[in-house]
Amino acid sequence: MCYGRRMADVASRELRNNTRALLARVEAGESITITVDGRPVASLEPIGYRRRAMPRAEFLRRLGHAAADPALVDDLRRLASDTTDDLPWP
What we know:
CATH topology: YefM-like fold
Strand order of the largest sheet: 1-2-3
CATH superfamily: YefM-like domain
Largest sheet: 3 strands, mixed
Order of helices and strands: EHHEEHH
Shape: elongated
Number of domains: 1
Helix content: 25-40%
Radius of gyration: 21 Å
CATH architecture: 3-Layer(aba) Sandwich
Low-confidence stretches: 1-5
Distance between the termini: 48 Å
Mean pLDDT: 81
Strand content: 15-25%
Number of helices: 4
């Protein structure tokens, strides 16, 4: 149980075969993660429910493969000065 809601992993095959039952569980407040070959690929959550935080492991899983453009650091160095002296003071 996380954030006061039950969470479950469900294979895509079960979603296909038991859509109505799974939607009833979601309507009752449960969040369900849909998996394909054991990998999480989607979430079913009740409408109006918006998670305010996510577990660290999920955050790392979602962003672990993402990387900034290698040239980004060079662009930022070129665009930003070493100081903030040139910024207007309120």
